[in-house]
Amino acid sequence: MAITRLACLLTLLSTHCYFSVLAVVLRTNNESPWTDEFDKIELSCLIESISTLNPRIEWKKIKNEGPSYVYFDKKVSGDLENRAVIREPATLVITNATRSDTAKYRCEVTAPDDQKSFDEIVIDLTVRVKPVMPKCSVPKSVPVGKSAELSCLEEEGFPKSQYQWFKNREEIPEDPKTSLKFLNSSYTLNADSGTLNFIAVRKEDAGEYYCRAKNDAGYAECAPQTMEVYDIDILGIILGVLVVVVVLLCITVGICCAYKKGYFSGQKQAGNNYKVPSKGDGVDYVRTDDEGDFRHKSSFVI
């Protein structure tokens, strides 16, 4: 009985070994590698077992538009043609990674002489890009009690940048209640969008502001900009309105008086202006040469 069991065990082991030899099996050291832009990165594709001497090895880049060949017929192609090599037996080495290399890559090995003749692994590569200097917008002056929005935007960094705001070189916390210095401030800070919104500006909110955009690859900052906060002069505004009303009233009165005195009359009579009157019944009107006025002369028509 013991001999029979031993024979069965040896049979199972030999069968397992037989199938492992006749099967192509792949593995990788890192399924989600990352690197900074312009650095070197290896996408490891290791063949654990195979019996075919010259297997077919292919690499494909997988993006939303579909897969495209990276390594085919023993040649690197596409946008990696001059920036990548194959390290035996199947590892892809990118010597100068760029942001466009961020994608999923599939290593495929076909072994015709193996019973399990095909295997593949997928590697998700991330190329990190340091942010560039963000575009910052800070209002130059804001009246006390009014709202104000400070904005910050950076679109080059990958992964997407997170934002920090600083006032007079001190970081502004996302929650003002966590800092004694900003406890009385009324603002909201969105680290994802980069906006800093003051609900009601105080005199203490005046100062120099700048923004920092950061991700895993690094950070960049915009130049500091000054925001002034001023009081609204209510008394001055009221006096200014009263002055304008008085001036408008004086102008109106002056125009009315001018109309009454005839300064805006459309017709004026001068000494040399003369309009021939229409003839009456049997009466002629003659102007003398020596006088500037008129004298009427009676005449009868027989």
Describe the overall structure.
The chain is an alpha+beta fold and 302 residues long. 16% of the residues lie in helices and 38% in strands. The protein has a six-stranded mixed β-sheet, with no helix packed on it. Strand 5 and strand 6 form a beta hairpin. Mean pLDDT is 83; it is low at 1-20, 267-271 and 291-302. This is Ig-like domain-containing protein. Keywords: Cell junction, Cell membrane, Disulfide bond, Immunoglobulin domain, Membrane, Signal, Tight junction, Transmembrane, Transmembrane helix. Belongs to the immunoglobulin superfamily. One of its GO terms (biological process) is cell migration. Residues 1-23 form the signal peptide.
Which key terms come to mind for this protein?
single chain, 302 residues, alpha+beta, 6-stranded mixed β-sheet, 2 helices, 23 strands, 16% helix, disordered N terminus
- The outline comes out as elongated
Number of strands: 23
Distance between the amino and carboxyl termini: 175 Å
The biggest sheet amounts to:
6 strands, mixed
Q: Which residues sit in consecutive blocks of at least 5 with pLDDT less than 50? A: 1-20, 267-271, 291-302
Order of helices and strands: HEEEEEEEEEEEEEEEEEEEEEHEE
Strands side by side in the biggest sheet: 2-11-10-5-6-7
| Radius of gyration of CA atoms, rounded to a whole number | 46 Å
Structural class: alpha+beta
Assembly context of the chains: single chain
Strand residue percentage: 35-45%
Percent of residues in helical segments? 10-25%
Tally of contiguous helical segments: 2
Subcellular location: Cell junction, Tight junction; Cell membrane
Signal peptide: 1-23
Keywords: Cell junction, Cell membrane, Disulfide bond, Immunoglobulin domain, Membrane, Signal, Tight junction, Transmembrane, Transmembrane helix
Family: Belongs to the immunoglobulin superfamily.
